[in-house]
Amino acid sequence: MAEEQQVPLLKKVYYQNCSGCRVEQLKETRRGLPIKELLSIWTVVLCTALPISSLFPFLYFMIRDFHIAKREEDIGYYAGYVGSAFMLGRALTSVAWGMVADRYGRKPVIMIGTITVVIFNTLFGLSVNFWMALSTRFLLGSLNGLLGPIKAYAAEIFRDEYQALGLSTVSTAWGIGLIIGPALGGFLAQPAEKYPDIFSEDSLFGRFPYFLPCLFISAYAMIVTVACCWLPETLHSHKENNKSREDSYDALEAANGGSNAKEKEQEIEGSESTSNESLFKNWPLMSSIIVYCVFSLHDMAYTEIFSLWAVSPRKHGGLSYSTDDVGVVLAISGILVSSYPPFGIKTCWKKIHSALLSLRLGKHICELKFFLGPFSFHYEICLCSFTIKFHQVDWSLAYL
């Protein structure tokens, strides 16, 4: 008796005019490391991460030049408002941007986010008073909601074996941006004072001493915006054809000897709805979210507090660093982070054979950094304490 040829019962149906289906077809035929997609995600995430912390090295001097603080000790108070305005706007609108991405696609939200960086980051560099700086930072965070959609995009654009690599690329670019951004702000702020042979006091950069780093980041965001025009959309734009689904169910029933596949589907849908209702009772998921929130809080707080503390006068307990000194510290730490890409953490995780153990290792590294921080009265110790920042926690969570 000839062997029966096995045919898949439910064959995937692709729609010609659906961009999501084209991506799925490409994923099935493509083999090898997706370098192009990794680079695309890396550049987009870097674009949204750079303006978050680029202001910290010069924020103290910007608030001082606004003359809004009555005492020098109050500069940090107003700097905290400007520094937190971005994240406040993002917290208020992130869910809404996620809903927009699910309805209209990931690509439009990504492009709106990069265009927002171009416009409002430039306006922030041209701020003439405290309220203009505060409002532009708030709008920059409110309209830049691409971080969530870019993670969904990274999960959809890669094959299953490369999804963890794609998500760790998001964390890598995010970490590098949070360190390279302050480095750019430190080196390029107040160019008329640092580079008088190139920039005069009467030039645009002399009248707006904090415009150059913002302009540099906005120019990069403009390039990324143009490049995003060629990003493939991963959201499916078609609606399921009920007739084709019924035909598939009939074929499945015939193959299973008349079993009722529709009832099984209803049971599956019922279990999915129950799972969605009990989402907040899913302790492994909620514990991962809590850990991520705690370390994100530590990440941003340490970056902002370090920069403000480093440039504050010694009489107020600071280090009296210039923006150049802060830029050097953050640039070297950025080189360390960039030299430890997701390939390194993937290899490390394979040797450890435990994402949880890798997560605990990252926690202990952060504890060492916190221990060295208060003793950073010398330049070398300060550099050492800040470079102990591997973002291993983010990478480990990608494997949980």
TrEMBL record:
Entry membrane topology: Multi-pass membrane protein
Molecular function via GO: solute:potassium antiporter activity
CDD domains membership: MFS_SLC46_TetA_like (cd17330)
Gene Ontology biological process terms, A to Z: regulation of stomatal closure
Source organism, top-level taxon: Eukaryota
SUPFAM superfamilies: MFS general substrate transporter
Places the protein is found: Membrane
InterPro entries referenced in this protein's UniProt entry, alphabetically: MFS, MFS_dom, MFS_trans_sf
Record domain Major facilitator superfamily (MFS) profile: where: 37-400
Organism of provenance: Vitis rotundifolia (Muscadine grape)
Name recorded for this polypeptide: Major facilitator superfamily (MFS) profile domain-containing protein
Keywords assigned: Membrane, Transmembrane, Transmembrane helix, Transport
One GO cellular component term noted in the UniProt record for this chain: plant-type vacuole membrane
Bilayer-crossing regions: 39-63, 75-97, 109-132, 165-188, 208-231, 289-311, 326-343
Classification of source organism: Eukaryota, Viridiplantae, Streptophyta, Embryophyta, Tracheophyta
